[in-house]
Amino acid sequence: GFARLRVVARGVDTALFNPRRRSANLRRAWGLAGHDLAVISVGRIAPEKNLPLTLRAFEAMRAANPAARLILVGDGPERSALQARHPQHVYAGMRTGEDLATHYASADIFLFPSVTETYGNVTMEAMASGLAVVAYDYAAAAEHVRHDYNGLLARVDDAEAFVRSAEI
After folding, report:
1. Which of 134, 14, 153 is nearest to 70 (CA)?
2. Residue partners of 32: CB distance under 8 A and separation at least 6
3. How far is it, in rounded angstroms, from Cα 14 to Cα 29?
4. pLDDT tens across 24-67, in order?
5. Whole-prediction pTM
6. CA-CA distance, 133 to 166, in Å (whole number)?
7. CB atoms closer than 10 angstroms to residue 68
8. Is residue 132 within 8 Å of 116, Cβ to Cβ?
9. Direct distance between the N- and C-terminal alpha carbons of the chain, in angstroms, rounded to an integer
10. Residue 140 and residue 15: Cα distance in Å, rounded?
11. Which listed residue, of 3, 20, 39, 57, carries a Cα 20 to 30 Å from 28's Cα?
């Protein structure tokens, strides 16, 4: 017979990904003052990450809060084209370890419109860092985000609902 199987859920290092890593200096480097809103997206800058929806959602947020900034953490094949079309955003490049954790903790809201993730560890890292999450009701977000409690969830592939959630 089979030995007893044990399933271990994926976890996040909460000593590393932690709100205490918030950096006023990093926020100033992003062009933010005081309580200005920092919206972050973390991941590969590639077509499968649904970045056009990230941009749409952020623009809806910025309409309500003109001082808001979008911080894109990551690199990939679409970065140079995206940066050329949207130079107003902060392109932080690839970050790892404590540097990545500081970027998360220094933001306020995490946008994650991807529907290609098998799990999406970035969602858990953002939550551990104290961020509100706006995501689709899918994968890690469906499992860990409680709508209207620690984030907002939109029905999968409903771009308009995702944008409306980000506007709130």
Report:
1. 134
2. 38, 67, 69
3. 25
4. 999 999 999 999 999 999 999 988 889 999 999 999 999 999 99
5. 0.91
6. 9
7. 18
8. no
9. 53
10. 20
11. 57
- Please report where in the chains the tokens 């890292």 appear, as a residue: 125
How big is the chain by its Cα radius of gyration, in Å? 16
Using the structure block, give the residue that is written with the tokens 């200096």: 25
With 0-12 / 13-18 / 19 or more C-beta atoms within 10 angstroms meaning exposed / middle / buried, residue 137 is: middle
Interatomic CA distance for residues 73 and 104, integer angstroms? 9
